[in-house]
Design a protein that fits this description.
Strands 1-3-2-4-5-6 form a six-stranded mixed beta sheet, sandwiched between helices. Helix 2 (75-87) crosses helix 7 (223-235). The chain starts with a helix and ends in a 9-residue tail after the last helix. It has helices at residues 3-19, 75-87, 103-110, 127-131, 136-153, 173-197, 223-235, and strands at residues 31-34, 53-59, 91-97, 120-124, 157-160, 200-202. It is built from seven helices and six strands, in the order H-E-E-H-E-H-E-H-H-E-H-E-H. The protein is an alpha/beta fold.
């Protein structure tokens, strides 16, 4: 890398660390039960009614719903509702997530907390690996181990790409361009590893964002942003019945 460009990137990264204030993890329940729309959850269950599906999401601040005021405004409860509506079955959902989590944390901390079997397992991390300057070989090693364990826990695994820090309105231009290249390479590795294992992959790093996507911190999604992310991830769940 050109020494002058390296100095510029280091300067912009230092500026971002000192000035960008990330929204914290919001209050709210990290698990819940949702029913298909139109089903009265307070009515006695019919004999023989199907047991709830188990949906678990593990990962970073996107799973932890940073950027909104309550967990219920994040994407995990919304995805659970979509699964319930499309399958006609109740869904019990749970998150294991932390602001700043990397794929290493997913591997060593969150996945061991998941008791299998799980009907649907969502993995969502990558942006923090980029921001922490983790190398491509390390990403491939950590993600390979995570995917191998995930498919032991669930027959339906979805990996989400990193988010879009390269489009954050709070980051300087040169830094955003640098992050874009890193995310492009990370995405290609992730696609390959998922294809080798038959794991579904949602590339949300390269989609056009909707107006109002960003929360006040300019780094996480707003409520509108999480609704958009929900649609992207649900669309990648090829095993789900299509919406009527």
């Amino acid at each position: 890398m050109n020494p002058l460009r390296r100095m510029l990137l280091l300067s912009e990264a230092a500026w971002a660390r000192s000035t960008v204030k990330l929204d914290p993890e919001p209050e709210g329940e990290r698990s819940g039960l949702v029913h298909p729309k139109g089903v009265d959850a307070h009515m006695p269950s019919d004999e023989g009614e199907a047991a709830p599906l188990r949906f678990v999401a593990v990962g970073d601040s996107l799973v932890a719903a940073c950027g909104v005021d309550s967990q219920e405004l994040g994407m995990v409860p919304a995805i659970a509702q979509q699964i319930a509506d499309r399958t006609g079955r109740p869904v019990h959902w749970r998150t294991h997530a932390k602001l700043g989590a990397t794929m290493r944390r997913v591997r060593h901390r969150f996945l061991p907390e998941v008791d299998g079997p799980v009907d649907v397992l969502l993995l969502c991390a990558g942006s923090n690996d980029i921001m922490a300057r983790r190398g491509e070989e390390e990403w491939e090693s950590e993600l390979s181990a995570v995917l191998d364990r995930a498919i032991e826990l669930s027959p339906r695994v979805l990996l989400s790409s990193a988010g879009q820090p390269h489009n954050s309105p709070r980051l300087p231009r040169a830094l955003r361009q640098h992050l874009r290249g890193k995310i492009d390479r990370q995405t290609e590795i992730s696609k390959r590893l998922c294809a080798e294992r038959g794991v579904a992959y949602a590339d949300v790093a390269h989609v056009d964002l909707v107006e109002g996507f960003w929360a006040g911190d300019g780094f996480h999604p707003s409520a509108q942003g999480y609704a958009f992310a929900t649609r992207c991830l649900v669309d990648a769940m090829e095993w789900l019945p299509k919406a009527s």
